[in-house]
Amino acid sequence: MSEDLERDLGLYATITISMGAMIGSGIFVLPALGLTKAGPAVIVAYVLAGLVVLPAALSKAEMATAMPESGGTYLYIDRAMGPLFGTVAGIGAWFSLVFKSSFALVGLGAYLLLLVPLSGGLVKVVALGLAVLIVVLNIVGTKQSGKAQAVIVTAVVVALAAYVLNAGFAVESARFQPFASEGPDGIVTAAAFVFVSYAGVTKIASVAEEVQNPDRNLPLGILVSMGIMLVLYALVVAAVVGLNDPEPLSTTGPNGGPSLTPMADGAGQLFAGFGVVAVSLVAVLALTSMANAGVLASSRFPLAMSRDSLAPQRLARVSRRFKTPRNAILLTGGLLAALIAFVPVVELAKLASAFQILVFAIVNVALIVFRRSGVDSYDPSFRAPAYPYLQIAGVIGGFALLTQMGTLPILGAAGIIVGGVGWYLLYGRSRTDREGALGVILARRREEEPVSSD
């Protein structure tokens, strides 16, 4: 089998794949949850979460131009800190992305119920059907998947812009008072829970090997999509807060919890029944887009790990006909379907968010290691600004948010770490003997230590 992937993703497809991994639950499901934790200041929480993500986004943009290969987070951490850390990052990032995609597809159910009277069981069947469609689309070709992503994301952004513009004439200023009703702690807690909304910004780095002119398109794609989503999230969440009474928004969801359809609730205030139908259709498109981007990016983690002998070799096989990593996509699709069918993915989404925060912090450390090592092979065409202060701020901000996630998500992230270490010790350690850039730094320090004499 050929192991060459085709570079057929242009700048627009790069931007829309990144945005597609962000436009979904962050806008259509999570605002009401954030409102219960921060009050109307949930708007600030979304901005804060984006600012904490920004250092890792800039760090990944730099490393992607130095290593424009499939693997993204796994590849950078592995090459910087060695295969043990790389294994933990690869498995964790793969799981968290698939969790997020599962959450997106199951989240379709709440919006589908606004369109047609489906039973809960049938909603899962629809989600499984969409999962199969997404897997097939990814196997047929990255170019086709990228084109579909571009069309869907463009339509969703236009619809969201129309939503915000119309909301400007209907919001009630009284609903923003008191603004920070839960205080600064509530804002930080809400930022931790909505952090996963931005996690997709760097996922385009996972398919860097399939991006045209990666030196230009990768950093531009990451930074442009990040800037657009930071503004879009703030505007859309402000519209949701201003259009809805806080009480029903906080209590009309499952088991008396937050609403899972806050965008549709607001649309009802604007356009009555027609608005609910329109926004529900847009939500279905957006959540499908998020799941597609998640499968596209997450399937490249087992591909990259297989190439490095940290996963079975068959996962590195690339289809001669479609030039896509078929086996890695099928494995990812199998996990996606299993989560949809058997697991309460809404809870697991919190675990995904916790591990994403941890991985993003480690990504900033990886960039510092590369810069400090001075290895000749590290030659990026884009340099992250304000080094190392921006990266240090990203690490501190990430761990500050992680402390707000609660015990269960932190334990879940710890469990994935233990599982990754176990996989490396049982499978990967005997198959690889390379060192990362961190090994270069440690070797240099050993050489510089004075030899003591008796």
Description:
Its main location: membrane. It holds the Pfam family AA_permease_2. It comes from Salinirubrum litoreum. This protein has 454 residues and is an all-alpha fold. The protein has a single domain (11-437), classed as Amino acid/polyamine transporter I, CATH 1.20.1740.10. The protein has 18 helices and no strands. It has helices spanning 11-20, 25-28, 31-38, 42-66, 73-81, 83-115, 120-140, 142-167, 183-194, 214-243, 246-251, 262-298, 300-307, 326-342, 345-373, 389-402, 407-428, 437-448. The protein is globular and about 70 Å long.
Number of strands: 0
* CATH class wording: Mainly Alpha
Described by its quaternary structure, the protein is single chain
Spatial shape: globular
Q: Which regions are unreliable across 5 or more consecutive residues at pLDDT < 50?
A: none
* CATH H-tier superfamily: Amino acid/polyamine transporter I
The residue-averaged pLDDT reads 82
- Total discrete domains: 1
User: The CATH topology, please?
Assistant: Amino acid/polyamine transporter I
**What is the count of DSSP helices, taking H or I runs of 4+ residues?**
18
Largest sheet: none
Q: Rg, please?
A: 22 Å
What's the architecture in CATH terms? Up-down Bundle
How far is the N terminus from the C terminus? 60 Å
Helix content, binned percent:
over 70%
SSE order in H/E notation? HHHHHHHHHHHHHHHHHH
Main location: membrane
InterPro entries: AA/rel_permease1, APC_superfamily
Transmembrane segments: 12-33, 39-59, 80-99, 111-136, 148-166, 186-208, 220-243, 270-297, 327-345, 351-370, 382-402, 408-427
Pfam families: AA_permease_2
